[in-house]
Amino acid sequence: HIDPIEIEKMKKQKLKLKDEAYAMIMDYKKTK
Question: For the whole prediction, is pTM greater than 0.70?
Fold first, then answer.
């Protein structure tokens, strides 16, 4: 049994990780 609140937390964490990865890629491209 997984609680809906846990699912929401996981979704938010995944989005945050994607945003951080995207920001890192953009910074990397800027330095090139």
Answer: no
